[in-house]
Amino acid sequence: MVVGVDSFDAVLDRMSNERAEASSHGSGHWTAMRGWNSSFVATSLRSQPWPSREQRGTADRAVHIDASTSAPRPKPAVHNAAPTPPPKPKPDIDTSLYKRLSPEDVAKDINLLATDTPAELKSKRRRFARLNHPDRTPMEWREAATIRMKIANHMVDEALRGKLAARA
């Protein structure tokens, strides 16, 4: 690269030189650029080579704009924008559930019956987890929710083992 020439001008000069070489060899309007990947091929609709830096002069050079001194851009106007809906209120959580930590209370909440099938037991476990899972409870009640889920999972697992043992 020539010192004192910006990269844009250097690329244009190189393209002009390569176009002149290609036209002297009769290669038509397809031009391969040296130094680029071989799959890069440029086509041009121009029948003349690119103008040299001297021919272009300084009129078409890029102008540097200092962002600190320029005026701020106006924000584009938004037309027909739908108003944002009000935020949904947080659901009230019944915290009395998390005070019921005895196995009897949890069994009553699950509503386990001796006649439940394995599919019904799994459904009851999912329904209980939907309401009591620790990830869905406030931070101050997570420990109690974890205890409730452990008790419920143990009770459902025992009921499922009993159903499977009765089948065998």
Written description of the protein model:
The protein is mainly α. It folds into two domains: 50 residues, no CATH class; 73 residues. Helices cover 42% and strands 4% of the residues. A two-stranded antiparallel ribbon has the order 1-2. The protein starts with 6 loop residues before the first helix and ends with a helix. This is J domain-containing protein.
Radius of gyration: 38 Å
What's the domain count?
A: 2
Number of helices, where a helix is a run of at least 4 consecutive DSSP H or I residues = 5
* Range of strand content: under 5%
How would you sum up the global shape? elongated
What is the residue-averaged pLDDT?
A: 75
Give me the strand/helix succession: HEEHHHH
Q: Note the gap between the termini.
A: 85 Å
Task: Tell me how many strands there are.
Answer: 2
Briefly note the structural class of the backbone: mainly alpha
Work out the helicity level.
Answer: 40-55%
Stretches with pLDDT under 50, minimum 5 residues: none
Biggest β-sheet description: 2 strands, antiparallel
Give the spatial strand order of the biggest sheet.
Answer: 1-2
